[in-house]
Every structure is written in structure tokens, then in C-alpha cells.
Amino acid sequence: MQTVKEILASKGSSVLSIAPDAKVSEALRFMAERNVGALVVIENGNMVGIFSERDFARNAVITSGTCTIQTVRDVMTAQVFYVMAGDNIDLCMSIMTNKRVRHLPVLDNNMPIGMISIGDVVNAIIKEQAKTIDQLERYIRGG
Fold first, then answer.
1. What confidence tens digit (pLDDT) does each residue in 84-140 have?
2. Domain that holds residue 88
3. What is the domain count for the chain?
4. Cα–Cα distance between 18 and 62 in angstroms, integer?
């Protein structure tokens, strides 16, 4: 079973973050420039939330604010679900499914060292299944 550490090794472990007092419009621009769907929110060296496209779509509209006035703190998710580098992809999929989140920060000593998305987890599962199918086919053929 593939681990989070192995996913990060193949995709990279950069952590994109933003301050909670940044404007929502700044966060959206930053995410668009880097083609990502979520940012870790860091304040005074601590992770205090996560800001995602979903947070913007749901919370910014509901609060009737404008993204040039609202801060990330106004719309971010403060309860962050996360994984550790040694965790396996089944745990990631379980958290993502049960908690209805699409991004999980990867922590080491309470500091983010990477971010994985539902797409990363699905790709890892597909690769593992393909490998298993190949091994079974070889076994059946006697090779």
C-alpha cells in the first residue's frame, strides 16, 4: 500500500500558504497562478486553517461579502483534517470521503510538509490496481 510520503516524492512537497488576513481576491489569484485548489493558512508559524475553492464558493457568497474586502480568515475552514507522511492512501481516501474534503495537508511535527489532493489519491489507487492486475495476469499465465 502506497504511503503519503511516496505520493509527495513523486509530485513534490511544496506547501503553498497564505496569511489569514490576506484578501480573498489575493488568495484566489495566487491559487490560479499556481493552478492549485487549496492553500494552507499560516499565522505566526502555525497552521490555523485551510482555504479552498469550495470555501470561497460557499462562504463568500453566503456572507454576501466581496472578495476584495473579505479576508481569508472570514471564509477559511478552521478545522483542518490532515495526514502524516507515513499514513497510507486508504486512510487518506477514508478521511476525504467521510469528512467531505478534497485536500489534506501533510504534517510532520505539526508543520505542513506537503499537500495531497483527492486526485493524487485516486491516481495512486489506480496505479496500485494496475500493478495488482499485471501481477495476477502474470501469475495466471505462469510467468
1. 999 999 999 999 999 999 999 999 988 899 999 999 999 999 999 999 999 999 999
2. 4-141
3. 1
4. 22
